[in-house]
Amino acid sequence: MPNRLIDETSPYLQQHANNPVEWYPWGPEALQRAAKEDKPIFLSIGYAACHWCHVMERESFEDPEVAAVMNRLFVCIKVDREERPDLDAIYMQAVVAVSGSGGWPMSVFLTPDLKPFYGGTYFPPQDRGGLPSFRRVLESTEGAYRKRKNEVVASADQLVEHLKQSAAFQGDQDPLTEEMLDTAFKRLAPNIDTEYGGFGTSIKFPQPMVHEFLLRYGARSGDPTAQVMVDLTLDRMSRGGIYDHIGGGFHRYSVDQTWLVPHFEKMLYDNALLVRLYLHAYQALGRPEYRRVVEETVGYVLRDMSDASGAFYTAQDADSEGVEGIFYTWKRSELISVLGQEAGELFCKVYGVTEEGNFEGASILFLPQELPKLAEELGVAEDDMLSQLAESKAKLLRLRGERVWPLRDEKVLTGWNALMLGSLAEAASVLGRADYLEAARANATFLLESLKDADGRLLRTYRNGNAKLKGYLEDYAFLVDGLLTLYEATFEPKWLWEAKGLAESMLDLFWDDDSASFYSTGHDHEELLVRPQEFSDNALPSGASAAALALQRLGSLVGTPRYAETAQIALRAMRSTMMAQPVGYGHWLCGLDFALSTPKEVVIVGDRNEAGTIALLDAVYSRYLPNKVVAGMASEDDPMAEELGLLEGRVLIGGKPTAYVCQNYACQMPVTDPEALLEQLGAESDGLDVVSQSGYLLPPKWKLNPTSEAGE
Length: 712
Prior knowledge:
Blueprint: H1 11-15, E1 24-25, H2 28-37, E2 41-46, H3 51-61, H4 64-73, E3 75-80, H5 85-99, E4 106-110, E5 116-120, H6 134-147, H7 149-167, H8 178-188, H9 208-221, H10 224-239, E6 253-254, E7 262-263, E8 266-267, H11 268-285, H12 288-304, E9 315-316, E10 319-320, E11 323-324, H13 332-339, H14 341-350, H15 371-378, H16 382-400, E12 408-409, E13 412-413, H17 414-431, H18 434-450, E14 459-463, E15 466-470, H19 473-490, H20 493-510, E16 511-512, E17 517-518, H21 543-558, H22 561-573, H23 575-580, H24 586-595, E18 600-605, H25 611-621, E19 628-633, H26 640-643, E20 658-663, E21 666-667, H27 674-681, E22 691-692, E23 695-696
Parallel strand pairs: 1-3, 2-3, 18-19
Antiparallel strand pairs: 2-4, 4-5, 6-7, 8-9, 9-12, 10-11, 13-14, 14-15, 16-17, 18-20, 20-21, 22-23
Helix pairs in contact: 4-6, 6-7, 9-10, 9-11, 9-24, 10-11, 11-12, 11-17, 13-14, 17-18, 17-19, 18-19, 19-20, 19-21, 20-21, 21-22, 21-24, 22-24, 25-27
C-alpha cells in the first residue's frame, strides 16, 4: 500500500512511496499531526541521485521492522533537498552544529514545533564503524524526548537561538578595490594542485566559479599564472574519468587526486556551469579541445536530459543494476569484440583500458596521453586517429544505450534550467550554433509559460504538468542572467523585458534594506524557524552572488542605476569574506570583477541574417571579454531604438551593418569592419601564448609563491 508520497512530483519522494514507512511530505498534515499528538518528527532529507540515500533506504526504510519503529515513535517526513533548499539549509546547519559534519541523507529529529534536537546523516542497520544503528538512534532519541522532554526542549531552543544568531548577517560597507581581487588571487594560488589541477589532493570537486574568477583575473591583470592554473585544471578534468568520454558531460566529483575515479552521478547544474567555463576557456586560450568538450557536453544534455517541451531534467543517478558506475565502465575484451582487433587496440591504448582495469575489474575511460603526442608516438596522422576514435565512440554509445540506464530524475527545477539556458545561449553566440539557440529559446519559453503562477510569481519545480513551490532567490537570479544572455544572442526584446520584470520582482521579494543583503526566500514564503540567507558559492553560485552579477549586467543594458547600486551594496557586505575564503566565493569575485571594471557596451545595428552583421558578431564573440554587454537591432527604424537607451541614435553607416563600442560614458567611432571592431574591443589576435593547442607550457618544477603575483 503506497504512502502519502505517491502523489508527489519529486521522483526522489516517489522512490519512497512504497516504503512501509508512513512517510508524509512536508506540509500542514504532518505538522498538525505532530502537534496534536505531541510526537517528535523524524525528518529525512536527500535527493534522487544520492548514493547513500539509496543505501539507507534499502537497509532501513524498506525493512518492515525498522519501519514499524519509525511509525510508532515518530511522524516521518521526507523532503527532496532540490525542491526545498530552504529546509535543507536550515536543518543542515543544525546537523553540523550537533554532529560536527553534514551530508546526505540528512537525518534530523525535531520537536513538534519543528525545532531540531538531534541529527546526523547516514545511520547503518547495525552498529558499525563507530556509528550507532539506526534503530538504536530512533529509540534513544524518542526516549529522550519522552522521558526528559524539558531538557530536550531547552536544548532545542538553544540550537534554534544559535541558528538565528548565525542568520543575523552583518557585512562590511567599505569601498570595493582592485586590491581585493589581488588578495583573493594570492590566497588561491598556493592551493592549486600543480600536477593535476584543481584544489586539494584527495576528493576533488569541479570549481567552475573559482576558475571563472581566475580567467577574469588573468584577463584583467595580464598575469599568465591565473590562466595557466585554469588550463591545467580543465585539461586534466577533461582527460580524466570524471568526464564521460563516450556520451559527454561531467560526473559529480572525483574521489582521487587525478580526476580518474568519479562519483558517477551527473547533475544538470554541474554541466551547465562547466559548459560556460570551458566555453570561456576556449575563447581565452584558443584550445580546440575545449570547444569539443563544450559541444559534447551540450550534446549530452540535449540528448539525454531534455524533455520535448524544452525543459531539462535534473540529474542521472550514479547506480544502475544496484552497482555504482557499471553503466559507464568497460572491459577490454568487450571493447575488442565490439570494435574489432585493430580499432579496439587503438581505443584501449588511447583511453587507458587494460586487462586488469582501474575500477573493480573494469576500466573507467581516461586519456593518459594528449592525443597529438600519442598520434606522433604511434606514427599515424592525428586526423585519421581522431576519425577512427569518433567511429568507435559512436558504436560504443549505441551499445551503452542497450544497458540498464541509471535512474533519471525528471523533475524540472527553474534555477538549474536557467543555468543551462544561459550556457546554451552563450555557446550559440560563440560557436555559431543555431541548434543551441533554438534549444535556448524553447527552454526560456517553457520556463516563462509553465513555471509562473497566475499572479506571475516564479515557481520552483515542475513535473508532469504540475508546477509548484514558490521560487527562491536563485531561481530568479539565474533566470534573469539566462534571459539576458538569450537577449544578447537574439536581440529579441521580449527576453530583455522579461529579465527586467523578474529583476524588479526579485528586489521586491528578496532584498532587505536593513541588512543590506538578499534573503533566499521571499517575504511571501511560509514562516520557518529562521529566514535563510545563503552567501557561499558551493556547488552552485549562491542566489545572492548571482543576483549581484545579473543586476549589474541588466543595469548596463537598460541604464537603471538602482540595479548596479544594489549589487555593489551586496558586494561591499561580502568584502572581507571574499578575500579571506576565495574558494567558497568564486562567483562573488566574478561580480566584484565586473563592478571594478568599466564594461564595454557593444551595439550592433544590422539584419541578423546578413553576412556583415554575422561577421561583426563573430568578432565580438571570438575573444574572451567577460565584462561586456551586447545589444542590437535590425535598423535605425527598429522600435527598440526608442525603448532602450543604448540603441538611441545608432544608425547604419553607408547602409552597412555597423558596430558601436562605448565605455565609461564615451563612445568610439562606429565601424563596419570586423578587424576594426576587434581593435576597438582591445582584443588580441591570438590566445595567450602561455598555452598551446596540445597542452600547457608549465615549467618542470612550476610552483606558485603565495607572496608573488605570478608563478615562479
